[in-house]
């Protein structure tokens, strides 16, 4: 069997923490899984990195937030325009709005109660600001709260509570 690599190009630290936690889901398919933050990198370096991934014959996902664009299609088109033939549209995964939606999607009602936050059946419309207001006072910093969520994170629950996360999982 050939040595298989997967690169997950992410925006920042919150995404990196998230993907480090869910990395085991890739273990059956890949020998090597690595995240790489692209948000602060110059376009030229990202292009060169994508070329090196292709030269290694590795798989990759390029993640981005939809941010101020009207829809997923517009974000994918925007990324495709930036990188041209180097990037394949099927490898672009758009996190609809914010990664915080994916974090909270993985919590069942019991975990929400343990953390002291409201339960939710769907996190598709949660904003970063709403996420921040949910942080209980017992957490000194936002990262501590996010780490506690990840300790309790359930892949099965997250796929039911968030459409863009479910789409990402279906791509694996």
Q: Strands of the biggest beta sheet: in what spatial order?
A: 2-1-3-4
Gap from first CA to last CA: 19 Å
Task: Kindly name the structural category.
Answer: alpha/beta
Number of strands: 4
Q: What is the total number of structural domains?
A: 2
Low-confidence parts: none
Shape: globular
Order of helices and strands: EHEHEHEHHHHHH
Helical stretch count? 9
Please bin the fraction of helical residues: 40-55%
Task: Outline the biggest β-sheet.
Answer: 4 strands, parallel
Strand-residue proportion: 5-15%
Q: What Rg, in angstroms, do the CA atoms define? A: 17 Å
Mean pLDDT over the full residue set: 91
Describe the protein in words.
With 172 residues, this protein is of the alpha/beta class. It folds into two domains: 5-95; 100-158, no CATH class. The protein has nine helices and four strands, in the order βαβαβαβαααααα. The chain has a four-stranded parallel sheet. α1 (13-22) links the parallel β1 and β2 (32-37). It starts with a strand and ends with a helix.
Task: Briefly summarize what is shown.
The protein is globular and about 50 Å long.
What key phrases describe this protein's structure?
172 residues; alpha/beta; four-stranded parallel sheet; 9 helices; 48% helix; 13% strand; globular
Q: Which helices and strands occur, and which strands form pairs?
A:
Blueprint: E1 5-10, H1 13-22, E2 32-37, H2 43-55, E3 59-65, H3 72-83, E4 92-95, H4 100-105, H5 109-115, H6 128-134, H7 142-152, H8 155-161, H9 163-171
Parallel strand pairs: 1-2, 1-3, 3-4
Helix pairs in contact: 1-7, 8-9
């Amino acid at each position: 069997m050939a040595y298989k690599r997967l690169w997950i190009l992410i925006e920042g630290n919150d995404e990196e923490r998230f993907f480090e936690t869910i990395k085991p889901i890739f273990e059956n398919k890949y020998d090597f899984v690595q995240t790489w933050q692209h948000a602060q990198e110059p376009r030229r370096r990202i292009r060169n990195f994508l070329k090196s991934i292709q030269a290694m014959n590795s798989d990759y996902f390029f993640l981005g937030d939809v941010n101020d664009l009207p829809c997923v299609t517009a974000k994918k088109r925007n990324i495709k325009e930036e990188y041209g033939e180097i990037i394949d549209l099927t490898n672009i995964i758009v996190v609809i709005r914010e990664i915080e939606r994916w974090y909270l999607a993985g919590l069942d009602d019991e975990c929400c109660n343990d953390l002291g936050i409201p339960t939710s059946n769907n996190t598709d419309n949660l904003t970063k600001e709403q996420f921040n207001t949910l942080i209980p006072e017992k957490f000194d910093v936002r990262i501590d709260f996010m780490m506690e969520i990840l300790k309790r994170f359930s892949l099965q629950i997250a796929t039911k509570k968030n459409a863009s996360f479910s789409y990402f999982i279906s791509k694996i």
